[in-house]
Backbone:
């Protein structure tokens, strides 16, 4: 599990897409991953400055694609913001 955060694979154009989307609002990530691993992955990805919040299934208590995962995400967004402030 120690090496998981080092494994970062971004699709071509991911940074550019996030930069463009950030002009319209905040960017958040919903993931089934473990909070500690995902936060480190985002930091290692080079996208942390564009991501306003991260909601993990571990933190929310609900795995995707359950609809309650998105409801919990709204709560998580209000609570923590590991990326830039708006």
Residues:
């Amino acid at each position: 599990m120690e090496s998981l955060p080092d494994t970062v694979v971004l699709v071509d154009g991911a940074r550019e897409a996030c930069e463009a989307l950030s002009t319209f609002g905040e960017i958040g990530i919903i993931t089934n991953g473990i909070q500690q691993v995902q936060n480190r992955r985002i930091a290692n990805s080079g996208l942390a400055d564009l991501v306003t919040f991260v909601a993990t299934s571990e933190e929310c208590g609900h795995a995707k694609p359950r609809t309650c995962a998105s409801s919990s995400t709204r709560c998580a967004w209000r609570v923590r913001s590991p990326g830039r402030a708006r």
Q: What stands out?
A: The two ends are 32 Å apart (CA to CA). DSSP finds four helices and two strands in the chain. Residues 19 and 50 are 7 Å apart (CA to CA).
